[in-house]
Amino acid sequence: MRNNGHNAARDENFQAGHPSGEMNIASVSKAYGVGPLRQPVLEDCSFTIESGKLTVLIGPSGCGKTTLIDILAGYEKADSGIVTIDGQPVKGPGRDRLVVFQETALFPWMTTFENVIYGPMVRKEMSRKDLESRAISLLEKVGLVDFKDKYPTQLSGGMQRRAELIRAMINNPKVMIMDEPFRGLDAMTRELMQEYYVRLFEENRATNLFVTSEIEEAIFLADQLLVMSYRPAKIREVIEIELPRPREFHMLTSKEYLNYKKEALEILHEEAMKAFASGSNVAAVDFLEAYSERQAASGQEGRDSFD
Amino acid sequence: MVTQKNTLSGWISLRKARKAVLSKTTYRGITAIIIFFICWEVSSRLNFPVVGQIPPPSSVFSAMRKIIGSPDFWGSWLVSFKRVFAGFIVAQIIGIPLGLLMGINRVFRDLTFPAIEILRPIPPLAWVPAAVIFWPTAEMSITFVTFLGAFFTVVLNIIGGAKSIDVRYIRAAHSLGSRRRDIFLRIVLPATLPSMFVGMAVGMGITWEVVVAAEMIASRSGLGFLTWQAYVAGNYPVIVIGMISIGIAGFLSSTLLRVIGRRVTPWLKVI
Question: Is A305 near chain B, with CB under 8 Å?
Answer without folding.
Answer: yes
